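For practice. Supply one:
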Amino acid sequence: MNIKCAFCQTPYTLSRIQMIDALQKMDAEKLTHYDAHCPRCRRSTRVERKRVEMFFPNWREALKQLEAEMQAHPQPEASSAVESRPDAAKQKEPKKAKPQSAPKPAAKKTEKTKSAAKKK
């Protein structure tokens, strides 16, 4: 489903999964609209429930199929997936602070700055 941000006019799309999530949330909370967040400016654009249902009329059947698919093929959680990686044990060492150099000497006065200082 294509949407144009009401604030920055950036066009973006809602995927099928995002539309299922939106319709499920609107159905559970009895909402009449969904706030789609713009990927560019992060502000929310109001999308009416009727419009989302028009683009995805059989969303309840698609939700049941998605749930059945997720039960058949469970996905690992993000935290356990990171821990199971072999390179996860290698941790980056913190950056060492750069040694501070001695303060720089003041700039030498030129003829222009000497004459400007005399005028003041």
